[in-house]
Amino acid sequence: MSKNRKIPKVGIGGPVGSGKTRLIERIVPVLIEKGYRCCIISNDVISKEDAERMQRVLSTELKVMPENMIIGIATGGCPHTAIREDPTINLAVIDEIEKKDPSLDLIIIESGGDNVMTTFSPALADYFIYIVDVAGGDKYPRKGGLGIESSDLLVINKIDLASHVGADISIMKRDAQKIREGKPFVFVNCQTGEGIEYVAENIIKSILFDKKTIAKKDRIR
């Protein structure tokens, strides 16, 4: 284990296509604007496609963070194994990051696409966001599962699609309130940015605790 300061870590899990990568692409610029330096670890089973996409969006297009601060891991096995049962590969990468750049404020860990039983090992993530989307129908929240029930924040994405797939947002809200028993949840549209500020503020309030300010010229190092 690294003897350096432990950097807070956020785990983001959810089914394939729910919007995990897009959520990260949205919240990272908000966090950086507020003065937080981030690193991203993206897990996938057989490729590093999501990491490469975030490098294009966040480094090449938006120019908000260095490309080498977005790291792809091809786990080669069941997605939840690398974040829960045996997170060794992720812990090794985190240890290297903490030694290399202990001044970072946050490490975001994206799980490979998995089911509603996704959770992160406490050794890996200090805060767990689980994301679903309305395209799966308004039954999603009430079906439950560890991710939906126990995550620190439940994100329900693609609210603009509700009318197209026959999903009732009010039903999803009612069921989320019931099954999460007071834990926070938020409806978002990752395409327009609706709800993204709420996600960022919950991360800050829960594990970063304060707000910082830095000059724009210092945001890429």
Fill in the keyword field for this structure:
221 residues; seven-stranded parallel beta sheet; 17% strand; single chain; 9 helices; globular
Shape: globular
User: What radius of gyration results from the CA coordinates?
Assistant: 17 Å
How many helices? 9
Overall SS class = alpha/beta
- Give the SSE string: EHEHEHHEEHHEHHEH
The number of E-state strands comes to: 7
Uncertain segments are 213-221
Question: What fraction, in percent, of the residue positions are helical?
Answer: 25-40%
Characterize the biggest β-sheet. Answer: 7 strands, parallel
Mean pLDDT value: 91
Q: Span between N and C termini?
A: 26 Å
Report the sheet-strand fraction: 15-25%
Strand order of the largest sheet: 3-2-4-1-5-6-7
